[in-house]
Amino acid sequence: MPREATLATERRPLTVAVIGATGVVGQETLSVLSDRSFPVGTLRPMASGRSAGQRVVHRGKEWTIEALPDAASKNDEGSGAKLAAAFAGCDVVLLAVSKELALRVAPAAAAAGAIVVDNSSAFRMDPATPLVIPEVNEDALAPCRAALARGEGCIVANPNCSTILALVAVTPIHRLARVKRMVVATYQAASGAGLEAMRELESQARSFAKGDGHEAWDTRYFGRPYLFNVFSHDSAMGADGMNEEERKLVLETRRIWRDDTVGVSATCVRVPVLRAHSEAINLTLERAVTLEEVRAALVAAPGVCVLDDPAKNQFPEPRLASGRDETLVGRLRMDASQPEGHGVSLFLAGDQLRKGAALNAVQIAECLLPSIRR
After folding, report:
1. Rounded CA gap, 236 and 227, in Å?
2. Is residue 9 part of a domain?
3. Per annotation, catalytic residue among 58, 174, 233, 277
4. 174 shares its domain with 120
5. What is residue 217's DSSP assignment?
6. Active site residue: 90, 144, 154, 161, which one?
7. Domain count, the chain
């Protein structure tokens, strides 16, 4: 079961806006806020005009979905000020929208004095914007704490889901013996692509159950059969042969660890799993360690659940990770192909919608709540 946040009970209720409230990440954000007893006094769920007027329930109370202000879709002079006015009084703004929309909405919400946590890639490589996994680099929030102490707002970027899950699992080992190189293969679920992708996988499963051939399956989203198939991640491919998902793992890892010298090689693929990503990771360490040291570091790490029972063949699986806050880590073993003690392999599974997105965003906001002045 999700853990509740340990927030001071005397803290005044806050005004919290969830932008993109009808999408899968937005819906999961509302769930996480409820599960962790986040101090929501006024909830402002926002979405496109198509969803305006619908109702969502949060902790037993109904709230009406607001349409995003018209200024959010414009880039003309004065739109920023109009947006800032729309977020006046908001303490926390959680964004689960496209990069393009986030680039307009996030600065306006921050200008209104809010803590803004953005799930898109819009600000991840911006040196002025912290890129944070609370279990890994909470200290990167220092500039935001300073801004809030002055009564100003701030923007924090949520890393990519695959990066979050990988670094929650690997950072305890990195602290034990610096990681020189990390080779990652991801097995990414439909949830990472959103509601349409999840529905397409479900639709193909229903068609298969009816006896329909794959030529009759709905393939409008991915353009190919997803059921019983594995294919390269659907993000844009660069001239260097890396797709954008792989590039995020490389660049975000180096930024979060503050180490531009660490080698990261990634291969990202889609697998026909509805929810929760998995990753196979091989590490090269700076100094020799024992498997016992690695296991002890992981057992003690926040956000990690070690599931590693070779005798019973029990290891991380997406179905076991779905709905959980922790990242499941197992298949722990030394890599005999590397110098003794310098190579470690592991396998993980983590809920992309929770720790890979919504939960991490809410945890960031929790870290900053004590710094709110108003």
Report:
1. 22
2. no
3. 277
4. no
5. S
6. 161
7. 2
